[in-house]
Amino acid sequence: MAWTEILYDVKDHVATVTLNRPDRLNAWTRHMEGELRQAMEQAAADEAVRAIVITGAGRGFCAGADMNLLSGISSGEQQGGGAAGDDARANNGGDGLDANFNRRFSWMLRVPKPVFAAINGPIAGMGVCFSSFCDFRYVAEGAKFTTAFARRGLIAEHGVSWMLPRIVGLTNALDLLMSARTVEARELERLGFARLLPQEGFVDAVRAIARDLTTNASPRSIGVMKRQVYDAMFQNLDEAWEVADREMVASFSSEDFKEGVAHFVEKRAPAFTGR
Fold first, then answer.
1. The whole model's pTM is what?
2. Nearest to residue 184, comparing CAs of 141, 148, 151, 147?
């Protein structure tokens, strides 16, 4: 596929999606969002892919919504669009538990593979929103973060008011959202939003972490656990327990369970298939 606002490649079972508007610090557009969604769906369906890394081209990760879009909304030329107005269900259908995973970025929680945000540089607004719905976040030394919304006369959009407190805690989330202050990478790590890595070789280091995770642990187990954890946010203990009991029985007949036992007994590296 000919991508125009992202780059996509697969190596060593890791798909890398790169936001590719470096001249605008990868500011968010509706077209970029569509391409990101397509790339993620392609990676999810590809048996050769076990993990997904999202990063930015050039010196930025994502500077938030493109200011041309915001200016259009402010002047009345656009009605929300890529910023807020079209945040309807991301997929048609779905109710009950499934309805929670049909929104603009919440669908990422149902991607059956671990998703890593490799925050290589400045991140703001929309970038904070979608990275909050990644499973893991790593930040390069020197990168800067701001939620931005309150300083533009806006509010916490796209589920970030729900997700951010679950990552950094209620008081820290309120601080980051209400103040919209600029936060350095080291504080992001202290708050628990992202793990800090050196700037040099940053994206390769995140890819290596993703590759190590999905090589030494069963991709099938990872996919099931991911769904368990996010579904459990909307379940009571009894419901989550019932799901775990069913999934444990199902795992006993999987190829990865047989391999998990065999490589441990034989004292060798695992060769998981994800099945």
1. 0.91
2. 141
The architecture CATH gives domain 6-214? Alpha-Beta Complex (3.90)
Please report, as a single letter, which amino acid is at residue 207: R
Residue 183 host element (H or E): strand 183-184
Judge whether 65 and 126 are in contact, CB under 8 Å. Answer: yes
Residue 51, CA atoms < 13 Å, CB-side half-sphere:
26
> Collapsing DSSP states into helix, strand and coil, what is residue 41?
helix
Joined together, the tokens standing for residue 130 give: 């979608």
- Rounded Cα gap, residues 222 and 12, in angstroms: 17
Q: Could you report the per-residue pLDDT of 180-198, keeping only the tens digit for each?
A: 999 999 999 999 999 999 9
Rg (CA), the chain: 19
pLDDT tens digits, one per residue of 206-222: 999 999 999 999 999 99
Q: Which long-range contacts (CB under 8 A, 24 or more apart) does 198-203 make?
A: 198/140, 198/141, 199/120, 199/140, 199/141, 199/142, 202/118, 202/120, 202/138, 202/140, 203/16, 203/53, 203/55, 203/118, 203/120
